[in-house]
Amino acid sequence: MKRITFLSDFGTKEGYVAQMKGVIFSITDARVIDITHEISPHNVREGAFILWTTAPFFPVGTIHVAIVDPGVGTERKGLMITTKKQVLIGPDNGLLLPTAHLLGDFVVYEITNPKYMIHPLSRTFHGRDIFAPIAAYIARGIPFDEIGTQTTHFVDMQFHLGEHQGDRIVGKILYVDRFGNLMTNIPEDILPGDIEQKKISIVYSDRRWEQVPFVSAYGYVKQGELLCTIGSNHFLEFSVNQGNAAQLLGISVDADIQILFH
User: Fold this and answer.
1) Is 2.40.30.90 the CATH classification of the domain at 163-261?
2) Which of 66, 77, 86, 262 is deepest in the core (most CB within 10 A)?
3) Burial of 112 (0-12, 13-18, 19+ CB in 10 A)
4) How far is CA 138 from CA 2, 92, 147, in A?
5) Strand partners for 202
6) What is the CATH topology of the domain spanning 3-150?
């Protein structure tokens, strides 16, 4: 059975998500799975991060519909992207591209054929009228070339990884989760092999936190204590045991950071 996922900033109070699913089920019996509908309103980068960290766990052939679309109803394009393993559908605002780069061997199509859209077409709800039916028709086997045309003109976005610069690693905060954990773009594989025997300094702007312990789980430090660990996405993160690291450190998404080891 084909699988279609949904990711959006729609929330669950209104009927937007249900309307998209209704469109899907009127065209195909594909299984529909919600990734999340709690992306911060209009936050394309946040939606891109959640898709980027979630899509790889789905099986080959999954179709992902991602909609964080502040430009809905304008001249921005709608895209289908085929990758080595999965299909991505959504607006042309960079939302899909980090995942496309991650999954590899991608080809971008602009959605152009009105035959596969819902009419009359809403100017404010392309998730229901364009992206949901397109996903359903792809699940039914309609060729991509029948739905759209290949393009090399699209809004790109990539999450560049942290890197070594001299005696330190430089990176960024990519995401803050509901617990206040600060997730960086520093991958596990560039960290020192003996990191659990080291103390870490975190440098942000003109502030510096010394002697931050690296531990394998939150519970290895006292409640309220700051720590570094490898999160479930295999990137370095800063956390507070049963607390909020974002509030404690005053660091937010996109902040430039430096990590030193002692």
Assistant:
1) yes
2) 66
3) middle
4) 10, 18, 9
5) 209, 259
6) Rossmann fold (3.40.50)
How many other CB atoms sit within 10 Å of the CB of residue 103?
A: 20
- The C-alpha atoms of residue 230 and residue 113 are separated, in whole angstroms, by 45
Q: Beta partners for 170?
A: 163, 258
Could you list the pLDDT tens digit for every one of the 262 residues in the chain?
Answer: 799 999 999 999 999 999 999 999 999 999 999 999 999 999 999 999 999 999 999 999 999 999 999 999 999 999 999 999 999 999 999 999 999 999 999 999 999 999 999 999 999 999 999 999 999 999 999 999 999 999 999 999 999 999 999 889 999 999 999 999 999 999 999 998 888 877 889 999 889 999 999 999 999 999 999 999 999 999 999 999 999 999 999 999 999 999 998 8
Q: How far is CA 170 from CA 6, 15, 150, 184, 236, in A?
A: 33, 43, 37, 10, 12
The residue to which tokens 């009105």 are assigned: 114
What's the token pair of residue 23?
């469109």
Closest to 184 measured CA to CA, from 198, 167, 166, 204: 204
Beta-bridge mates of residue 171:
257
Could you write out the DSSP letters of every residue in 194-253?
TGGGSEEEEEETTEEEEEEEB-SSGGGS-TT-EEEEE-TTSEEEEEETTS-HHHHHT--T
